[in-house]
Design brief:
alpha/beta; 12 helices; 6-stranded parallel beta sheet; Rossmann fold
Length: about 350
């Protein structure tokens, strides 16, 4: 199939962009003209990399689907420890220069790099997952209403606890993860006000390993379980594996995140302790952007997935969860109220 590159930008925006870049010693066209062939989708992973059984692996699933369907060359690149924004810029620029299109940065940490590199390669479509601040004609901000899925996770936790104590473990204390916490806590309290929610963040920054340290997740979950939490929800990337391991060891429930973690092969030993997962369809978002480029109509601007679109929700792979009629009724009722606007889910 012949692929169609995106050639955009009109009027004053183009003129001002070209002027700004020429003042720095180059032009937007000079960068893009150096690209080799027109290849397919490329993704650059967030901290934790491929194998996190969560966020990054979902992005890879989207890449694999695009590769299979469109039969083109793809690439996926791991992060490095202690990398800077300049390192991310170099990684994205290298992919664009090689001719990959689209190029997606997986995670909000790529925002400065995507904004910088997109200006230099206007004929390449860029995507960034979990950031909505970039306003450029060739950038798609792939974002999700995580708070809505987390609200449903809160309903599930409140309905499943026998100790009236549940836990939330966040990887890094940042606004994105605050959305998970806020939705979860609201879902718990709206369902049963007497249930206590224990909340903890692993680190203040991603560089400290909040998204990539299963040992930190395990320790935090064990602390909450000692305080009688019998359902623990983790929004912590790779660190969430430690939370799930702790839940299994102590015979309490874990709620996974992003991907359906009950179905993850690496977590098979603990699957009977995974009640459900608050999912967001990163795989679909990645694939859809690739398809839009393939079709010659690239997505740009904010592209949001929510309960209404079906791109966030709760996984029902665990038969015990799926077979609990009262629990499913409570979750479905909450879902309908969120979609209708009757329930406004907080983001902080």
């Amino acid at each position: 199939m012949r692929r169609v590159s995106r050639i955009t930008v009109a009027g004053a925006a183009t003129a001002s962009l070209a002027l700004a870049l020429s003042a720095c010693g180059g032009t937007s066209t000079s960068a893009s003209s150096e690209t080799d062939s027109d290849k397919g989708l490329a993704i650059a992973y967030d901290v934790g990399g491929k194998g996190d059984q969560s966020f990054n692996d979902a992005a890879f699933a989207g890449l694999e689907r695009a590769k299979k369907e469109f039969g083109y060359e793809t690439d996926d690149v791991e992060p490095t420890d202690g990398e800077t924004d300049a390192d991310k810029e170099q990684r994205l620029a290298s992919l664009a220069k090689q001719g990959y299109n689209p190029v997606i940065g997986v995670g909000f940490a790529y925002a400065p790099a995507v904004e910088e590199v997109a200006a230099k390669y206007p004929d390449t479509t860029f995507g960034i997952v979990d950031d909505s601040q970039i306003q450029a004609d060739n950038v798609a901000d792939l974002v999700f209403s995580e708070e809505e899925a987390s609200y449903l996770a809160g309903v599930a936790a409140a309905k499943s606890t026998k100790t009236d104590t549940v836990g939330f473990v966040g990887g890094v204390d940042i606004p994105l993860i605050h959305k998970f916490q806020a939705g979860f806590e609201q879902g718990v309290k709206d369902t049963d006000p007497k249930v206590e929610v224990l909340s903890q963040y692993l680190t203040q920054t991603a560089e400290e390993g909040g998204f990539s340290s299963p040992d930190k997740g395990k320790s935090a979950a064990e602390g909450q379980i000692e305080k009688k939490a019998d359902v623990v929800y983790a929004a912590a990337g790779l660190s969430g594996q430690g939370v799930i391991e702790a839940a299994a060891a102590n015979k309490v429930w874990a709620i996974g995140v992003d991907s359906d973690q009950y179905e993850q092969e690496a977590l098979a030993a603990y699957k009977e302790s995974i009640l459900t997962s608050a999912t967001k369809d990163v795989a679909k978002a990645v694939y859809s952007l690739a398809k839009s480029v393939e079709d010659g109509k690239p997505e740009t601007g904010i592209v949001r997935g929510d309960l209404k679109s079906g791109e966030v929700g709760l996984a029902d792979s665990n038969p015990e969860f799926a077979g609990d009629a009262a629990l499913q009724e409570a979750i479905e009722t909450a879902k309908e109220k969120i979609i209708s606007g009757e329930i406004k889910v907080r983001t902080s």
